[in-house]
């Protein structure tokens, strides 16, 4: 878990991780444990791993030896006082541990020491010298650097004298230190104390307590470093997993809110939704909540986001609590999404589990381990509301989950089911305030039908639309319908169609009336123009007649003048 190295776990001094510890340590190779101990177990010293039956002590110790032999070049010796060697080999084979192979390679030695109570005497010169000889031979035969003693109660079961017991216990631990062996000694949980004898924890340099609790019929394993001489360490309880992949511990990081934000914007894969956000998508590394009642399309919206991220070549992981991955893949085909090809390409991984399978902390530990190993850029949790538990624990789990994803720069998409499509203070365990963006889905029923709508309640750091938008899901994907506001508000479905038809008819009527009025005006214009032409013709005719009359008058006047001139000439000639 290299990603956790930058932040110390809760319960440690803030400057503990800033300087190298003075105490030499040996890495266990157990995911998370080396983080909370800042390097592993004390080198060359004995450590006690205690707990009740079934909490994983032997498996923890075996993993310590196997990792030392296979990863760190340190052979080890497993000395058991209860479990036979063949039983131990068979029990850990399911985790992929080939103990027989390691023994054959000289990297591991397994010895079963049968201790009979009747053979133990507390008088005379009885001591653990025989054990030291046998253990020393096994160590020298393979050059061991690590040893495991499992379990110490069996070895000291016959001692009733506390003085002798304490002396022999100190002698055993001193022998381990003198040989420079890094040791794990397992012990059974006592009544009111860490171990049955109540002394091992005092002489051990490091004490690790394993716990296996059952609450509401759900088992949760927890680990706590009780003490660690000479070193800082995480002091809280940390959930840990035991499954086919071995042991992994969840080192809860401190929620200092000092993580670096991711740059860039990621498209949702839904063009209409991107258009409602000013940058064209959500900021990378943000936490997005998609809430709504059943059937509003939450999973299909998250599937669209996953498909868009995979199309960009990004890795995505989806934690689902109500459907299997194959079912989601099949359902996504109905809107034209082929998620199967992304799974085959290694870009998409589904992790499906019922909420009742683990406790809250185990779910968180499982997510923590899977995310670190798969390294996705987008994580979907569907639905978040499926998790059950006391409100305080739910709130703490959600906070740790969001912080874990934010610290890695992962874009997280959470869905939440609510009957009324809302997340109020009593029902949402305060999760909405942790989110950077919130998309709310609603089913609107009107005129005997149901329409899907969405709107963006908040989107930190960006401008966004405040409209309620209807959307449809078809083989072509998810499409947002343009917002339509009628006289009575936002209309959807057939009510929208009817209103649009009525408005289209009204527009047609207005256009027809306008055309009629234009035709009537044209007719009046043409009539007036005809009248004007007639008047103009009459005027022209009158003007022509007047010109003719004037011309005739002028001719008559000229003739009279000429006749007068002629008469005047004649009269003058007769004289």
TrEMBL record:
CDD domains: KaiC-N, KaiC_C. Residues 1-20, 508-527 are annotated as: Disordered. Keywords: Hydrolase, Kinase, Phosphoprotein, Repeat, Transferase. Residues 24-263, 264-494 form the KaiC domain. GO terms for molecular function: ATP binding; hydrolase activity; protein serine/threonine kinase activity. Pfam families: ATPase. Its EC number is 2.7.11.1. It comes from the Bacteria. InterPro entries: Circadian_clock_KaiC-rel, KaiC, KaiC-like_dom, KaiC_C, KaiC_dom, KaiC_N, P-loop_NTPase, Sigma_54_int_dom_ATP-bd_1. This is non-specific serine/threonine protein kinase. It comes from Methylorubrum extorquens DSM 13060.
